[in-house]
Structure prediction request, 209 residues.
Amino acid sequence: MAKTVIMDHPLLKHKISIIRKKDTSSKEFRELVGEIAMLLCYEATRDLKVCEIEIETPICRTTAWELEGKKLAVIPILRAGLGMVEGMLAMIPAAKVGHIGLYRDPETLKPVEYYCKLPADCGERETFVVDPMLATGGSASAAITMLKEKGVRKIHFLCVLAAPEGLEKMRREHPDVDIYVGALDERLNDHGYIVPGLGDAGDRIFGTK
Prediction:
């Protein structure tokens, strides 16, 4: 069974509280989502392996550390997931970026695929799927199923907010995927939105309605 990490960091709590506010501007919202992604990435990469190297400081030669040749990929679920990419790349700049396009049918609440473009060697990469909201879990689960069908095996999922219903679906359908959550909220409402949530993350990131 993979791990599920519900973050409990003071900086995350503070930043998430700001993006919850309905009067937070798109500019500030977008910047904060990037910063939150950095903090989530820090935790999600905790187990990456490192190896010893020899370097020379201004004072002397010494032993240091570098990542052990890991190939990484960041896969945002369009479109809201794009808001997390910059923060992820700030932490792991050598990672390649793929894209999965899914939208939630407003009637059935089920995901519909409309785009998928991945690095050619994605199956060899440790992959971080990102989407700010884990509501019903349908889009995240469908995206991860798509990745597995294309040969990706080492997958992590990162989100800013999750509802218990979405988290349960992910645990049930993808028990092998590590999940990192900025905050776990109370529930979903009748329209499939997270409560108390922060509204539509995509609209708030891009300033659309």
In short: The chain has a mean pLDDT of 93. The longest helix spans residues 26-44.
